Amino acid sequence: MNAHKDPGQFADATQASPCRLCGASLSRTVVNLGMSPPCESFLPPELVDAAERYHPLHVMICDACLLVQLRAYVEPEEIFTEYAYFSSYSTSWVEHARRFAVMATERFHLGPQSLVVELASNDGYLLQHFGPLGVPALGVEPAANVAAAATRRGVPTRVEFFGAALADRMRGEGLAADLIIGNNVLAQVPDLNDFVEGASRLLKPDGAATFEFPHVGRLLAGNQFDTIYHEHYSYFSLLTIERIAAKHGLSVFDVETLTTHGGSLRVYLAKTGAGRAPTPAVAALRALEREEGLHDVATYQAFDERARQTKRALLKFLIAAKDEGKRICGYGAPGKGNTLLNYCGIGPDFLDFTVDRNPYKIGRFTPGMRVPIRPVEAIDAARPDYILILPWNLRDEIVAQMRHVADWGGRFIVPIPRVEIITPEGDPL
After folding, report:
1. Starting at the edge strand that comes first in sequence, how are the strands of the sheet with 177-183 ordered?
2. Cβ atoms within 10 Å of 65's Cβ, excluding its own
3. What is the residue-level pLDDT of the chain in tens, covering all 429 positions?
4. Half-sphere exposure of 187 (CA within 13 A, CB side)
């Protein structure tokens, strides 16, 4: 993430915004989710009656380069200087990171002479795995509270926003990366060109960069409108990634499809002319995206109505359950959950509370809807009839952890891609 601000970079609601990749005017809507506060701005009890800042969640697509994007209503300093998301609280995500570290060390022949740099390294959830492999690693993380957790884990971390200026300073200090990692960060930078240019400058001539991000194709196909929030400024296809890379002297030489975050891509970039021939997976995904219509703006414009239908279906079920006297609570307090709660208008009138494993969030309230956040054990005390799984991408992990709710006849509600009621055994009703 970077702090560089071009004039007019942050949105003025009275003026049209240019595309953050190519500068063309934006006029086409993908989905409009109304007004919402920043999704990670969890409220401490003393602020529960205070006013909040709301911003539009209105996603556009560029006719010229097809980048799907949210106007930059919120500066990154407002979101990321103190951040509520700690990656290590998801067991499956930490294991995903460990497997990546082992794979990358072998594939790129990393060793004591190498340097791995992760951009937006969070609490060291990934870089901690390179130490036992004998590979030096450095994190760059703008959120001081999260970076402190990484430092305690033994992961060296620079507390700064990343961009071309920082890359130049690092090169001036003699640092250059054999591997640059950016997991779920590319979407979170308003000045996309500055960030990718920084990665290009920091990379060694024969180095590689990997970026993971939710695939806009899966967002559309899976009706994942709740993955839209203010900290996600852009939503990518391989098509748009190749355009971004080419603009900064980089080329995509491999791509993988992942199940994380509802369906993600991991793209591999190298300097153009570095001699890394693209794997067959690149051409295959390019062809698949074309089959799915990701080259056509009409594909994106059909998304808005699907989001509205899901909202109506979820509210219909919740209203009927409450009319029957059922108790409902949530599981998890992820950013995506707050988009869902605010778009659908689901507050304490529907959810008695939600729970989370992250101590930072416990005792606070969700932004906008003010749903109280309690420890996971609160579910056992309350014995609710239904548990709304807000991080639906972790549904299998959560259902496995909470299988004992069968003791009192509890059921789970999964809101995305469609409203589904499942048993503690994971079976749909």
Report:
1. 157-158, 137-140, 116-119, 177-183, 203-214, 264-271, 250-258
2. 18
3. 443 333 333 344 435 689 999 999 999 999 999 999 988 889 999 999 999 999 999 999 999 999 999 987 776 555 555 555 556 567 777 898 999 999 999 999 999 999 999 999 988 989 999 999 999 999 999 888 888 999 999 999 999 999 999 999 999 999 999 999 999 899 989 899 999 999 999 999 999 999 999 899 999 999 999 999 888 899 999 999 999 999 999 999 999 999 877 789 999 999 999 999 999 999 999 999 999 999 999 999 999 999 999 999 999 999 999 999 999 999 999 999 999 999 999 999 999 999 999 898 999 999 999 999 999 999 999 999 999 999 998 999 999 999 999 999 999 999 999 999 999 988 888
4. 23
25: DSSP letter: B
Radius of gyration of the chain (CA): 21
**Amino acid (1-letter code) at residue 257:** T
Q: What size, in residues, is the chain?
A: 429
